[in-house]
Amino acid sequence: MSIEDNPNLSASADAAAAAANCSALVEQILYEVKRVVVGQDRFLERVMVAMLAEGHLLVEGVPGLAKTLTVKTLADVVRGSFKRIQFTPDLVPADLVGTRIYNQKTGDFSTSLGPVFANLLLADEINRAPAKVQSALLEVMQERQVTIAGVTHKVPRPFLVMATQNPIETEGTYPLPEAQVDRFMMKVLVDYPTDEEEFVIVERVIGPAIAASAMADTEGLAHLQAQARQVYVDPSLIQYAVRLVSATRTPERHGLKDMRRFITYGASPRASINLIEGARALALLRGRSYALPDDVSALAPDVLRHRVTLSYEGLSEGLTPDGVIDRMMRAVPAPTKVMEHEKLVA
């Protein structure tokens, strides 16, 4: 039977072609960003996954690892607007979302929109501002809108918040509210570059400046996001994601009875959603129109590490969220049944 005679095969072939085209565009975007940003391939991949899945990133790393440069360069490559907010203890919510300003000449109030009205927003050292400021981001992160004096204002689409934390400095910092932490799709740990990468970094900094070229626009990015939502996800993958998240809440049900005393709170259902949405985006990034178990397992540490709260006993034993998640991933088997996309091409 030919592809033309089988609607399922024809649809599968069209989806594969569309995924390949999208993957090629994403590769062009990443290549252009890498002309400016050296190394950090995994971090760049996670930024693109968050962008395609319409999620937000919490990034932890020491200063000087090109976190700001990465987001600013990505904004240039996709012709999007970029804003950076330096969080400080004296920041107030109006500094983020905007406020109403009284005009003495006209006697009228006008609305001044804050820096959250951008395609890519960098919240630098987010844990240096008090909870009331951090909470001001909640509505805009979840609803993509802010309310000023009873009037709702939509932020531009696409919209990505990337917040950074410094892991080596705790003086003058505030813990993020759990409700806000859960709004971040992933928490990504950024490490130092290798010696070879750092050599290239120094060479580029002391050499002629490199300007990134625009490879797409916000409309093209919106198309990529829509295409990511068309990536096929087998029900067994959803079950796998749900079991992984469930293991963080009730590890005894998954053969990890000894882990129960080390965990105070597990991940919320938002983690299961983010695992699947992220797997779709990662599949598209890798040129596929269907997600695989590897896509879910690759993102699981990033999606779960900030959602697992260890008990005092776990901390005293020297455990880390990543170590706990690794044990759970080894205890929860990935699906092995035939995927639907394999049935279509069989």
TrEMBL record:
It comes from the Bacteria. It comes from Variovorax dokdonensis. This is AAA family ATPase. Residues 49-166 form the Sigma-54 factor interaction domain.
